[in-house]
Amino acid sequence: MPGLNLKNLKDYRDEILKIEIVSLLALWGKMNPDKLNKANIILHGLKSLSDWENVLKNKTVKILTENFDLWNDFLRSWREWRSRRNKNYLLQVLYGIGESLNSGIDKGSPSGDVKIKPEYERWIANPFGSFKKKIIYLQWDETCINNKFSEIKQSIDGLLGSGNISWEDVTNIKEKIEKIFSGLLSDDRFPANEISLWDQVYMATTMFKASLAEYVLNNDIVQDLPKRNEIKWRILGIQYDKLGLSERGYKPAQIQWYRETAKEIDEEVKKLMEYDYPIGNEIYRDETGIYFLIGEKLGEDIPEDNIGQLNPDLSEIYERILCIFKHKSLDEFYPAIFVTKASRGLVNLGYLVEKARENFLKADWRKKNIEICIENSKTGKAVGICQLCGQRMVFESNRKDESKYICKECDKNKTQGRIKKWVEDTSKETIWMDELKDEHGRVALVTMKFELKHWLNGDMLNSFLINQTDYLDMFNLSIKTIKAIRELYIKNALDSDSYRLKNGKFNQQLALEVENIIAPVSDSTLLRSYGGIKLCLENGNLKLVDRSNNQQDLKTLLNNDKFNSFIKIFDFKLFKLLAKEAYTGCQGNKETFDDFIRQIFFGSVAGTHWEDWIKQSLLNLKINWHGEFIDWSRLTDQDINFLSTILLQFLLRKNPSPARLRRVWESTKEFFEEIERNICDYAGIPEERKKRYHWDNSGIPEGEYRDGDAIFWSDQKNVNKVYLISYLKDLPEAFRLKEYARRDSDEGKEHVRELQLRDGKRETYQPYMSITDPTPVSWQFIIPAEYVPNLIDNVIKKYNEHFRFVYGKLPLHIGVVIQDYKKPLYVGIKALRRIRRDIEDVEKLEINVKVSQIKDKLKCQRLEESLNDTQSYYSLYWGEHNKGYEFYVKPAGTQGYHRKWICPIGSIDDDKSVCIIPNTFDFEFLDTNSRRNDIRYARDSGYKRAVEMKRNRPYEIETFWEKFKVFRDVFGEDKYSTRLQKLVSMIYGKLDFKDDSLAIFMTSAFINTLEPKKDERILKMILQIFDIEESSVKSDGKLDTSKLYRQLMAKLNRESLKLFLDMFEFWHRTLKEV
């Protein structure tokens, strides 16, 4: 096989970029406010795709040996790509293949009758069903919209006329188009309103660009047009451990350097892949790296492995990637570069991300400088290895702090350099730990993480519907249809030659048999019109008549194109009902039934974990995976049952199209980004807490100073200001600044300068610091510890707004590590990595809850959501019922996950249980460095803590957070302090009692120590924490102590007592609020 010609890619780079930009216009017609994006506005000049003719006509690009007119050969009538045979239509065919896979059956076929409501208040949902925003036509001024369109037109016109396209030109146009398209629908049918026009356009263009680049690399001339089933893609991952980088820092400034460096690396790699060598676009980015969609031939499979490597012919690109890491990381870290198996979607991304930790160990270090200098003529002998980078030597003259070994490069770039960066804009997040401490001197390191594994691989989309129907009726129809198809293939009835007898006459017997086979499962049968002739049945015999009812010879049918097209695919009722767009499209393009199956079956499973799973079944013996066809004639009844279930599921579920998967991870990332933008509001940090003092023209030399607990930074060189960089609840009238203690300074040295508080000016800053940037999976950050409870409250409130329809299917985990602000920051970050709780078998987190708990989440819906009955499409659950739809929810999981009945929550009885994965929170107070070792999770106990005393953690937020808060509300009052301390001491002292003795003793202790009979608040707290009904402890409306005693006896076991102790640990020892 000839190799890939990288020179071609370089030579035609600008042409590929121009074509990419033009392809973003292919779906421009969907913007028409008279159609699916209904609105009472007037667009001037750019209402439909045809309005771009004057801009694009006679604008040509050259690809290999051919010139292509961007209008006539590409966008004009591009939807007719299936019928194209001339090589002039290469661009149409390549774009059409990608767009059809993205928006055809892979996107699904929602019912045409179910339009988004209200009709003239069209809105966009997030991919989990919740309202996101109204279309921009209902938000923006008409003049503004038309001006934006004009800007896009001018920018594209300018780019097409340019002989030198810059990266800025490309990104600028994309951003302008995204701003408009992301606020418009790509489909006005419900529930397809979660895919914005930008989502559809971007992924169609991304698939097209990857295919075009592959074609250019793989050919020297434009020759045969590619076929739809020949085109596949891979995902290229440039993987490196961003979380691990954050663990290296001792100070916020150093952590910030690693975070910013990772961002710069990703952006450099993005430019390399999308512009310098335009082989594909970015599709995903998280803490494991950055990922791109590329053509199949740009990668190679590794034998006996599910991942592959970049094609060796692209070694130049590979080397450039390594060079970016070498330069940007100061030669400290390098990536592992792998590709997925080829497929027609993005579901394999999940596998590559899942394998990231393993792949980190396979990083390519070939460009690493391995020379070690132990002695330097200027700096003397080495005294150790840098504690920050862990790679370079530290020389005696480099040491600036008694307790730290920091090399010259790290000090220059990661400490001093970041301070200079901070001075440029001090209104943003702080880099000083003293500004992050609360009044007790504590900081909270927080991780928020979604369990996205089964969303990234598309499995959880199996619990969504694109169509509602009577499942059992449709399943029976599916069985009958596939049995009919089996019979047709046995009789070879989809081949026109079978209808011709040896004597040249029409095979009437076969036609009659076919008619009997298809009649029960078809909308129309052989008895239909074929142009000017019609086939009829009269007295048990076939009769062919023309429009004048004159009888014609049956063999006329043998040369009738419409007849021959019909028998290649027929007209099955099942597919007309549930896959109308794909099925009628194949009929209209004279494609075969096997072509249709390639779309709805092979297009969804080829190259994915579905294929691996199906290969384990007996059905695999009847499937040709290379040719992508099923041997229908050999199917057994068991095969038909299995295949019917899968096909019906693919027709009813929301399929994991590239655009839909992109929307999933974009939405979870946006959730974290929204919290970051408003972190001070979410944490309830008051305005006064966001104020910092500074003094102008201080004349104090650059450096760090202190006066007691007050820490200052003077920047005389750049802004000539001195900043108070520590939070103090009570500020003195004056400060006497001394140099911050260094190993070569005198602690008792005279003060440098006195500053008066009245002379200082106040500025606003953000008292938080990101450890990592928000990704689709997680976000890690630091805030003052006292604001953690507010943060949890508001994050869960926001979660319910964004994800209420998928509660229990998209679990959020919140982990909090609290430590003294003076402790080494890396200790807390390493603990944070543990409490993040990375797990592989997410199913171990599942619990059963009553249906009523799910329904409570759905009581508060927006009008738009309730009008469209959103929960019937998104809130489907499995559990103690056999209603709804029988789907294979997680085909790659254990046997128990293969086939489940999923049902809209509104149709399940309240007293039934369903399976969910709850939202959870965990915490740890690092009073000692070794405490982080307590953060270990036991797989066998559903990933609860392995340490016995902390076995209850993490806690289900919906079940326990309100209990935690009522504990604080009561015991936060000083009058209860003594009683609480006494009770806690007794619990710790008696936990080793036998169960019966423990319950008896602790019941008496609670009643006698807390005295609930005398205090109604104490009583209500006890009842709420231990799930005791108030009516069960009262007689005639008054507390019955004997009843309370019996109820507590039943509730006070080791688990509930550890809950009480954890509440005390959280509010007293950790936050000091009780």
The total count of strands amounts to 41
Distance between the termini: 73 Å
Low-confidence parts, pLDDT < 50 over ≥5 residues? Answer: none
Average pLDDT across residues?
93
Share of residues in strands: 15-25%
Which class best fits the helix and strand makeup? Answer: alpha+beta
Shape: globular
Number of helices: 36
- The percentage helix is 25-40%
Describe what is shown at a glance.
By secondary structure, this protein is α+β, with helices and mostly antiparallel strands.
Output the keywords.
1074 residues; alpha+beta; Alpha-Beta Plaits; 7-stranded antiparallel sheet; 6-stranded antiparallel sheet; 36 helices
What topology does this entry show?
Elements: H1 6-11, H2 13-23, H3 53-56, E1 60-63, E2 66-69, H4 70-75, H5 90-103, E3 123-125, E4 131-134, H6 142-160, H7 167-181, H8 197-218, E5 233-239, H9 242-246, H10 252-276, E6 282-286, E7 289-295, E8 299-301, E9 307-310, H11 315-328, E10 336-340, H12 349-354, H13 356-360, E11 375-376, E12 380-385, E13 393-395, H14 408-424, E14 442-450, H15 453-456, H16 471-490, H17 508-518, E15 529-530, E16 533-538, E17 541-546, E18 551-552, H18 561-569, H19 573-578, H20 580-588, H21 593-605, H22 609-614, E19 623-624, E20 629-630, H23 637-652, H24 658-677, H25 679-682, E21 691-696, E22 703-707, E23 710-715, E24 721-724, E25 734-739, E26 753-756, E27 761-764, E28 769-770, E29 778-784, H26 788-803, E30 812-820, H27 825-835, E31 847-850, H28 851-857, H29 863-867, H30 871-874, E32 876-877, E33 885-887, E34 900-904, E35 913-916, E36 920-925, E37 937-938, E38 944-945, E39 955-956, H31 957-971, H32 977-990, H33 995-1010, H34 1016-1025, E40 1034-1035, E41 1038-1039, H35 1041-1051, H36 1054-1070
Parallel strand pairs: 30-36
Antiparallel strand pairs: 1-2, 3-4, 5-7, 5-10, 6-7, 8-9, 9-10, 11-12, 12-13, 14-29, 14-30, 15-16, 16-17, 17-18, 19-20, 21-24, 21-27, 22-23, 22-25, 23-24, 25-26, 28-29, 31-35, 32-34, 33-34, 36-39, 37-38, 40-41
Protein name: CRISPR-associated protein, Csx11 family
InterPro entries: CRISPR-assoc_prot_Csx11
